[in-house]
């Protein structure tokens, strides 16, 4: 059976990485001046890269050295699309997973969306926290207080005011959904576009769905099985 796994932040919680919408989540804790929904935008990066990069560094890069947990290892040989940017599936050995929202350990040339660019490794360990803002500007090649198209770099992360492009392997992700005999959602709140896309495909092609979550969100599809458990319990029962 060709099972496609689509994972969210709940899968990385056991690795000590906060979920997005829990009490300590990325989307509940912003900067001193902006909410997370305001911070995580292309517009903020363009208009206030100093605040954006400091927020991104403190809220995301702080977890760059965390390791995969048993769920990531179980998924290491599976057909996988993850919403997580933590890169833990790659650390666990999955060679061909799709990081549909980008990866924390990578950056790209700051480009017009849709242009063909390649992700590059981000040398986070070169950041000097004693001069954090200047050091981040140097890392992302920003002069004159604003990122410059086709010159500066940008974290490889899909922001709220951006859209899925081939940089994020969106066509391949859709094809994996279409080819699936079953789609298993693990640790996701169904609040992002990729999960809605998968549910629409599952409905259209009558692909059975499993939802793995201690408090699973109800989805509109006739062929759904709800597994009211966390991902670790699920893999131990399979």
UniProtKB/TrEMBL annotation:
It comes from the Bacteria. Its EC number is 2.3.1.286. This is Sir2 family NAD-dependent protein deacetylase. Keywords: Acyltransferase, Transferase. It is an enzyme of class 2 (transferase).
